[in-house]
Amino acid sequence: MTSDAPVDARPPGGKTFFGHPRALSTLFLTEMWERFSFYGMRAILVLYLTATVADDGLAIRESTANAVYGTYNAMVYLMALPGGWVADRLIGARRSVLWGGVVIAAGHYVMAIPARWSVFAGMSLIVLGTGLLKPNISTMVGDLYDRDSPRRDAGFSIFYMGINLGAFIAPLITGFLGEKINWHLGFGAAAIGMTFGVLQYVLGRRNLGEAGARPADPLLGADRRRALTRIGLVTLAVLLVLAVLALAGLFTVNTVVNLLTIVTVLVTVGYFARILTDREISGTERSRMKAYLWLFVFAAAFWLIYDQAGSVLNIFAADKTDRDVLGFTFPASWLQSVNPILIIIGAPLAAWLWLRLGHRVATPMKFAVGLVLNGLSFVLMAAAAKAAVGGDLVSPWWLVAVYAIQVAGELALSPVGLSATTKLAPVKYASQMMGLWFLATAVGDAIGGQVARLAETWPEPTYFLTFGLASVVLGLGAVMFARHIRQLMAGIH
């Protein structure tokens, strides 16, 4: 099924998934289990990195652990860009999702090995696998709908609910196993979740029709051989750089984190420059890409704050919240389930709202709402940090309230951003554009990881208030530029 297929196309027998194409159910469940593995591991990662050796942790400083966490998230999303290219030019989205799931599962199994080296080796595999899976499964969802259909946003919101169903369940399981029993047992649970995801995808492939079956712009003959040669040379160059750093005694966690942050920003600049100067895209497509650049900046700023839930806010939950309930101290990572359960509740409402509003509320205004709400969540977090000054433990309801505000912002921005990406994408860059959308998260997380270092040295109320107000101001700026961005979108709503 292509992006020009009828909006209400259904498989034989008329079976649907909440009124949407049946194929959405297969993609929904695959993404659910992939997110189970991702968020399950992520919920305990920083806690494991900062835990003492006596508690079987790595005893890394909080500032460094926050930066590692941010950079890891950034690399997961950065690799979505070459992952989209592989699908577009070599093997197609469907096989990219399959092989990505297999590599992700392998990475989690490596992390389950009780050895100090396993965490970084496992994360490297997860990064590579997620790069193949993440952008291409979203592209396949986009293939189920007409480009400018109001039902498209509703479909992505339902798909987004699947993401958060996995994200809700995962910390409850991996958090208990990791914090209460053994960290590597928690990582092993994430591995089993990804294995379920791969099996479900294989069994449900008959629902997919033609979605993602072939590369959008395949490389053939000499072009294919030339591309594979370049990939080999780039891989060799990366290995040589790592070897030089090791020989020079510079192969440290902080060096690698800083280098990867720079690479993320440079890749972003280079990729936008490449698309905007490509003579093969039309004037209308170029205008839409200029609009997309604005949305990209807004999204990166959003994720810079939002994704600190698993690092700065997770450490706050572990050290400064009262988690005793009837004599049981629940794991700090359990609070990572608050955000997704609220999204599960809110996603159907958001899907109904966008369908009801149709084209009356444009995408730039939705982004502005997301930024303002995200900023207000950190302003509230500043009050929570103020209450914790002096060593007092504060109620976990502070964090619940913070996450509730962030969820409202996320539902205004993230699923809408997924949909906008597939609508604004030049035909030549279909799957790669979905990788570019995830690159916004990569930039936000990479810079956010560096910013999060300040949480260890700045007074916490100052830290949260500063970046909260900055997001509010940027959101108000987005409102001012909304009309200009809509003009650049050239008829896409």
From TrEMBL:
One Pfam family matching this protein: PTR2
GO CC field: plasma membrane
Domain of life: Bacteria
MF terms in GO: dipeptide transmembrane transporter activity; peptide:proton symporter activity; tripeptide transmembrane transporter activity
Residue intervals passing through the bilayer: 36-54, 66-85, 97-113, 119-137, 158-177, 183-204, 231-251, 257-277, 334-355, 367-385, 397-421, 433-451, 463-482
Similarity remark: Belongs to the major facilitator superfamily. Proton-dependent oligopeptide transporter (POT/PTR) (TC 2.A.17) family.
Name of the protein in its database record: Proton-dependent oligopeptide transporter, POT family
Organism whose genome encodes this protein: Micromonospora inositola
